[in-house]
Design a protein that fits this description.
Layout (H helix, E strand, L loop, with lengths): L1 E2 L2 H23 L4 E7 L3 H16 L3 E7 L5 H13 L5 E4 L9 H7 L11 H8 L8 H12 L8 E5 L6 H10 L3 E5 L6 H5 L4 E4 L17 E4 L26 E2 L7 H20 L2
Parallel strand pairs: 1-9, 2-3, 2-4, 5-6, 5-7, 7-8, 8-9
Helix pairs in contact: 1-9, 6-7, 6-9
Bound molecules: NADP nicotinamide-adenine-dinucleotide phosphate.
């Protein structure tokens, strides 16, 4: 079984960004800039935000973390986002979810300009994306497409099953695969006989958010398995995905591990999106 190494592909994406960032800086006098907004004290969210800042620095981009207290009101958050929308030196905006319960993610997804939406997940961004005119593509499905491209796995004409229909992963994943000419089946919690459906697929992308949910018996021989799932509480408290990876060797053709598969791609695509948005606004 070929292990699809997301860490390697992410490194390749970052390396390709370094000259683009330098070129942007040469032409505009500053590197692309990502502004990350975080509200409250959730330690895991603060770690994710810190990792995004470090990732920006690695490719020569700059970033600012706007850390707002848990007592922030919706009006204050909206005002901060409007200020970032209007700031000519901010190229990408990312609001770290989840927000504290009294704040509305809906408002954030309405407010952040698609011209600066580094995640590609606001309602306007998704509208352009599904209309086939994306500013940028949502990071995680874009990361999956990049892994497939890197390993020269063509999806054209192939039967691909996506398990999960969230706005963040499943739906945009199905759209990107369709645009790449795959024949796509989108499954969800009401799908009947899921295993019978996944066993027909040449490629299965699993994003159900259920730890160790699918295994060898759910895939046909020589299938390609992409595991988007991420869970901190697998066997022995280790990070695991939606797939029982250890069952796959000798049965499927290729699969992404967790950790080290799709996960590293998401941040790499966030950087790529920020650079792309910067270039577009600068008219490159
Ligand atoms: P989500 O919003 O919880 O969506 C889960 C989807 O799976 C829903 O559409 C749900 O169906 C479907 N589902 C649940 N149980 C199912 C079942 N028994 N059979 C078939 N479908 C089922 O999750 P998400 O945000 O898309 O994330 C999915 C997973 O990816 C999570 O583990 C998350 O941590 C991970 N993730 C990883 C990255 C990364 O960077 N690697 C990024 C984002 C997400 P319904 O619509 O019918 O409820």
């Amino acid at each position: 079984m070929l292990i699809l190494n997301g860490k390697e592909v992410a490194k390749e994406v970052r390396s390709a960004l370094v000259p683009r960032v330098a070129n942007f800086k040469d032409k505009t006098g500053r590197p692309p800039h990502l502004s990350v907004v975080i509200v409250g004290d959730d330690p895991a969210s603060h770690t994710y935000v810190k990792n995004k800042k470090i990732a920006c620095e690695k490719v020569g981009m700059t970033s600012t973390i706007h850390s707002m207290p848990a007592t922030t009101t919706q009006a204050q958050l909206n005002q901060a986002l409007e200020k970032l929308n209007a700031d000519p030196e901010v190229d990408g905006i990312l609001v770290q979810f989840p927000l504290p319960k009294h704040l509305s993610s809906d408002e954030v997804l309405r407010l952040v300009s698609p011209e600066k939406d580094a995640d590609g997940l606001t309602y306007a961004s998704l509208g352009y994306f599904f209309a086939g005119k994306p500013f940028v593509s949502p990071c995680t499905p874009a990361g999956v497409m990049q892994i497939l491209k890197h390993y020269q796995i063509s999806v054209q004409g192939r039967n691909v099953v996506v398990v999960g229909r969230s706005n963040i992963v499943g739906k945009p994943m199905a759209h990107m695969l369709t645009e790449a000419h795959a024949t796509v089946t989108l499954c969800h919690s009401k799908t009947q006989n899921l295993s019978e459906v996944t066993r027909l697929a040449d490629i299965v992308v699993v994003a159900a958010g259920k730890a160790r949910f699918l295994g060898k018996e759910d895939f046909k021989k020589d299938a390609i398995v992409i595991d988007v799932g991420m869970h901190g509480s697998g066997q022995g408290g280790k990070l695991c995905g939606d797939v029982r990876f250890e069952e796959l060797d000798g049965w499927v053709k290729a699969a992404t591990p967790v950790p080290g598969g799709v996960g590293p791609m998401t941040i790499a695509m966030l950087l790529q999106n920020t650079c792309l948005l910067a270039e577009k606004r600068a008219g490159f």
